[in-house]
TrEMBL record:
Keywords: Methyltransferase, S-adenosyl-L-methionine, Transferase. It catalyses: a 2'-deoxyadenosine in DNA + S-adenosyl-L-methionine = an N(6)-methyl-2'-deoxyadenosine in DNA + S-adenosyl-L-homocysteine + H(+). One of its GO terms (biological process) is DNA modification. This is site-specific DNA-methyltransferase (adenine-specific).
Length: 517
């Protein structure tokens, strides 16, 4: 993948995938007219010219258009050098099939004029500006404007389309427009050179059918035999299309069980941790503290989940161990400090920060004094918002602060921190983490604050001996299966074996997809 391709969002579709998409679409829809809105090097055109259809191919790059003219003399193909978003706004032509792999370009790198064109298209559909975070959104809406009443759109889209919050209104809008939506995901990466998971999204209307979302997982671009298949008919519209990996019965079991237990939002006050604006500057180790002569200006802080990854109870001895390993677990707290009275070494350190232009960084620049980091209260519990296989809720017995890698929970009086943390590691809550959250390239999962607060925990008071045993199991690196089985036996002992088995299978589905297992 060339660097210039990445900058223009032009990740060319593998030819085997192009062939599959073209053959699939042409079998499903009668398409005398076809539009390829981002022609690139013409690989969709190469396949589609085998069919007796009139093809319009749009490409913004004039050099690529000239190349396509030299290799594509077919009279059924009209090559158009244009910005597709402008074309979609001006053209009244309609197509039976719109197919391709639109560019994935964040709006941050677009010009003001390019953004304005996309916003005009979004307003055409009376949708909120907030859905426009990437150019592929504009391509979906432009394609919809140019589509015949019974036509089909078939796009390669980033997997994030199925799950990100900003695209939720777009997904709901598309569910109103189409009664058949088919999603195909891949167990193996389509673009192994980049951390960008993709999916295929086919949308059309078929007379006489009730609205349905179909979700299929296949092995790779050379093997399209379904590994997983599910249909959503009753639970529409879906908040996240990524959850159509489940069927209606599985979703309803999750929701019914979730409604029986305590919501995380009711546990107490929940907030992200401290945002320093420059962790590598403000967070230091013991050696730095001694060198800068500033120990009285430090607060204890955790900035990496890996520092507390294998435990349930984070005690003062655990923090002491981190300091003895010279880990960076101290944050400079200079709020309300008279800078004229600090050590000369610390003054020089602040000057080094100015030389690095830290005072111009967004968060630092918003402060009256760039080095005064706002302090967010520590919590009884710490939840680390990003995780790999196992999300982590930890008792903050050491009373440390955290950066914004963690949500800090200050519990209401009726809840016991040790019991909440213990009860978190059950099959239902861990499955809800997968259902409610999202994941990124490489398989890292994340829960934003609203998603974390929506989780349910089957809370009950837990005996101290059980809590200590779970802490010991985590420290001894017991398997996730052993940990979950132990907790389930105490907090979900009222569930039937069948329900527990279904929860386990649902979670396995999510993990296989997310971790590419």
């Amino acid at each position: 993948m060339k660097v210039e391709d990445k900058q223009t969002g032009s990740f060319y579709t593998p030819k085997s995938l192009v062939s599959y998409m073209s053959e699939y679409a042409m079998q499903k829809v009668n398409a005398p007219t076809i539009l390829e809105p981002s022609a690139g090097d013409g690989r969709f055109i190469d396949v589609l010219t085998d069919y007796d259809s009139s093809i319009d191919a749009i490409e913004i790059d004039a050099n690529k258009i000239e190349y396509l003219k030299s290799v594509c003399p077919n009279n059924n193909v009209q090559l158009i050098c244009a910005n597709f978003i402008k074309y979609s706004l001006k053209s009244n032509k309609k197509y039976n099939l719109i197919i391709g792999n639109p560019p994935y370009i964040t709006k941050k790198v677009l010009t003001e004029d390019e953004r304005a064109i996309s916003i005009e298209l979004i307003k055409y559909w009376s949708l909120p500006d907030s859905i426009f975070q990437n150019l592929w959104v504009s391509f979906v809406l432009g394609a919809l404007k140019l589509l015949n009443e019974n036509g089909a759109i078939f796009f390669v889209l980033p997997f994030e389309f199925l799950q990100v919050h900003y695209a939720e209104k777009l997904r709901n809008f598309l569910e109103e427009k189409f009664n058949l939506i088919e999603i195909t995901t891949f167990k193996e990466s389509v673009f192994p050179d980049i951390e960008q998971d993709v999916c295929l999204v086919y949308m059309t209307n078929i007379s006489g059918i009730k609205p349905i979302v179909k979700y299929t997982t296949v092995k790779n671009i050379d093997d399209y035999n379904p590994i997983e298949y599910s249909e959503i008919r009753r639970n529409k519209p879906l908040k996240k299309w990524s959850n159509s990996i489940l069927n209606d019965d599985e979703i309803e079991l999750l929701m019914n069980l979730s409604n029986q237990y305590t919501k995380v939002s009711s546990l107490g006050n929940i907030s992200p941790g401290i945002v320093t604006g420059a962790n590598d500057f403000f967070i230091i180790n013991d050696s730095d503290a001694e060198r800068l002569n500033c120990k009285e200006l430090l607060i204890p802080i955790i900035q990496k989940g890996s520092s507390v990854s294998k435990l349930l109870l984070f005690a003062k001895d655990d923090f002491l161990e981190l300091t003895e390993l010279n880990k960076k677990v101290w944050m400079l707290n200079l709020s309300k400090v008279d800078i004229t009275n600090i050590s000369g070494d610390l003054k020089n350190y602040l000057s080094e920060g100015m030389i690095r232009e830290l005072h111009k960084r967004y968060k630092c620049g918003q402060r009256k004094r760039w080095h005064d980091v706002p302090i967010i209260s520590s919590g009884d519990l710490m939840f680390f918002k990003r995780y790999n296989k196992l999300p982590r809720l930890i008792v903050n017995s050491a009373d440390v602060y955290t950066t914004d890698i963690s949500y800090n929970i200050r519990l209401n009086n009726e809840f016991d921190a040790h019991s909440v943390a213990f009860c978190f590691y059950n099959s239902l809550t861990l499955t809800l983490c997968e259902y409610s959250g999202r994941f990124y390239g490489g398989g890292v999962a994340e829960l934003v604050p609203s998603e974390f607060k929506s989780l349910s925990i089957p809370y009950k008071r837990i005996h101290k001996s059980s809590v200590k045993k779970l802490d010991r199991m985590l420290r001894e690196n017991k398997t996730i299966e052993e940990i979950v089985k132990y907790v389930d036996g105490i907090v979900l002992n009222d569930l039937s074996p069948n329900d527990l088995d279904v929860l386990k299978k649902i979670r396995e589905k999510y993990l296989i997809r997310r971790l590419k297992q």
